[in-house]
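Quick start: read one record
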Amino acid sequence: MKYKHKSPLPLFDTLKVMLEEKHEKKPSVLARIESDAPDNALSDYNVACEFLCSYRGSADTFAAYRREVERLLQWAWFVAGISLKDIKRAEIDDFLAFCQHPPKEWIGLKTVARFVDQHGTRVINRDWRPFVSKVGKVEYSAEQSPDISNWALSQKSFQAIFSILSSFFNFLIQEEYSDVNPIALIRQKSKFIRKKQSEKIRRLSDLQWEYVIETAEIMADQDAGLHERTLFVMNALYGMYLRISELTQSERWYPKMGDFQLDMDGNWWFITVGKGNKERSVSVSDEMLSALKRYRTYRNLSLLPYPGEQTPLIPKTRGAGGISSTRQIRNIVQACFDAAVKRMIEDGFTEDSERLKTATVHWLRHTGISDDVKRRPREHVRDDAGHGSSAITDKYIDVELRERHASARKKSIKPS
């Protein structure tokens, strides 16, 4: 069946709006479902809303699940002309093949909101698309535009499809809306997901990290009002392996100074809530404690936090409260990366500076873990990082890779 809408229209709003709407769905969405979607589509939509709203504890998780469920429903209703109840293994095979090569009309050039406010009403944003073509950080900095003709779904995206839709169909089974999980029936997942021998951890080199942290210190010395916060953010991301979400305020997490806590033995810990809404304690090193003291001194606070202190950990520059946008943290880190790149180029480290241009915020967590696992018991690093198993921590041990490459360095091609 040919899809009825060349440019798909969005189905699900933000988590906040969906929770406020409760059972009152948008008339524009309902009208489209009733006019163009197959039988049972409205029931599909309602159960999908229940599933998505069950992830109200994490906005990031909700966004990821919304993306995959929305793509599936768009394809099922307007391409295959079927309901969720009709999807079996063969249909999932077709859907995955569709995701590999969606119509150009389904691919956008930038991420946009699904709905926008217009005269007090939430209306459909017709620029939204289920798939988005993007360019890397270096290409974006060079003002290169995405190319739809070269678009391809990444391996990471395919992994998300399998993981998220499997959870979705398990939910449908529990709700007695479906009797099968078609994702679990796909035996040849290798057609879509390549198995890796080992996963290379993306991290900064020793030289790059040295330039980055020195740059942060220089920036703080030159403009404390703007960059003492930058220096503390860089120290926290590296020194405590924090994720960007663990520095930002959300409905489930409010990072504050009182999360630094002193135990009966005189040791400092940082209590955070991370991936999977799991709370963990991170051991605070002496240097990290010194970084905290410097930051608090700049903010005219006591040298160390007191029990129950509610002062925001990373405050907004304007207004009250802590930073609530991960984008703001990314901008803080990126400004430091950019300044470090400039210094490296000036000092003649051109190749290293080019690699630093591709770095993201999460590389700081990877770098901190990779550096620590060389000298600390891996179980200690595992618990500080919040890894579910030591096998995950083992990925950060690169000694074997170095030895493997060293043994291959002088092997000959021509016969001796």
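The CA atoms of residues 359 and 397 lie 20 Å apart.
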